[in-house]
Amino acid sequence: MSFSANVEKLQPSATMAVSTLAKRLRAEGRDVIDLSAGEPDFDTPEWIAQAAVDGIRAGKTRYTPPAGVPELRKAIAKGLSVRAGRDLSWEGVVVSNGAKHSLFNACFTFFGPGDEVLVAAPYWTTYPEIVRLARAEPVFVQGSEEREFRLTAGDLEAVTTERTRGLIYSSPSNPTGSVYSAEELRAVVEWARDRNVRLLADEIYREIYFEGSGEAPGLLELPPESLGPFVLIGGASKSFAMTGWRIGYSWTPPDEAKKMVALQSHTTSNPATPSQMAALAAYSDPGRTAHDVARMREAFQRRRDLVCRLFDELLPGLAYVVPRGAFYLFVRVDSAFGEGVEGSTAFCSWLLEETGVALVPGAAFGDDRWVRLSYAASDETLEDGIRRVADALKGT
């Protein structure tokens, strides 16, 4: 069977594949601890969910404008304007079917054949695939392990060519939990500005941050003169525990947003209207959402501290990146490789069979020496899972 050049090299999401396998094994009766999923384990706050129910009962079930209802776009823009300390037009907001969709829109709108897009590594598994779908070429660039993989201008300069058009990065990072300081971020942003490289800034985990004010440094807090062309990506999935609602957004200047709206109008059109009603409630009441976000962030930070302590105690030979945000622990496991277990994929398969613990191989994120553990799980589940891993590795 032949496929079009659009998809012939496309790889399925490794994170979804591991989560699906874990669920299948559990359905077969296996005792599985799934630490692979990239979503909060909390329910959507009841008052946000109720807004969707109320919207359905009020007949909010029809098409909306492709970019979302103006009220939601305005509520998102208001929050962004407060962060930036200046007015950001609501017409620059495009509400999409999750942040992944927003990234897709951005890549298809700004990149194409012959373009190179730098991808900060380790990377979320979808970034290079979206770049390839746009017929552009991903170019991976990795910061030093000592810097928790955060990039410098020198790292970027070393791989830049005349074809470089963009840079995709996340902070807080999936999979490492690493976070750029304001000074580090400004150096990267100004490097991109000076070379007219468009930034795709994935800030979906921005509010799950364990240092400082509770929100990680982002593009909008930088001086406007530091910024060149950029697309800011955010959404409701992680911070508001709304992964299944599929609400993400992008912000660009309105004339650029119009092109992304045109693209979205011919692909998916508007996000689900009831989901928009829920998101409208969340973004329209920042004080109330802040309370719920703080509650979940506190739990994630406690779990972060727990998993780090357990690794220090039970697995002292394995290095890891201390997460400053998000809800992942990125662990280096190549010291545990051996005969029949060569590489992170084989390691995760062996671990799942031996212990019932599901992790995601680092190969999915561009570094085969590592694995990713999600601590979006209860304290008891995390402790049980890590003890199983420690017991299995002691027997090797």
Describe this structure in words.
With 396 residues, this protein is of the alpha/beta class. It has 2 domains: 136 residues, Aspartate Aminotransferase, domain 1, CATH 3.90.1150.10; 238 residues, Aspartate Aminotransferase, domain 2 (3-Layer(aba) Sandwich). Helix content is 41%, strand content 14%. A 7-stranded mixed sheet has the order 2-8-7-6-5-3-4, sandwiched between helices. It is globular and about 60 Å long.
Structural class: alpha/beta
CATH topology call of the largest domain: Aspartate Aminotransferase, domain 2
> What is the number of beta strands?
13
Estimate what percentage of residues fall within beta strands: 5-15%
What is the straight-line distance between the termini? 43 Å
| SSE series | HEHHEHEHEHEHEEEHHHEEHEEEH
Which strand order does the major sheet show?
A: 2-8-7-6-5-3-4
Q: Tell me the helix content.
A: 40-55%
Rg calculated over all Cα atoms: 21 Å
Which word captures the global form? Answer: globular
What is the structure about, briefly put?
With 396 residues, the chain is an alpha/beta fold. It has 12 helices and 13 strands. It folds into 2 domains: 136 residues, Aspartate Aminotransferase, domain 1 (Alpha-Beta Complex); 238 residues, Aspartate Aminotransferase, domain 2 (3-Layer(aba) Sandwich), CATH 3.40.640.10.
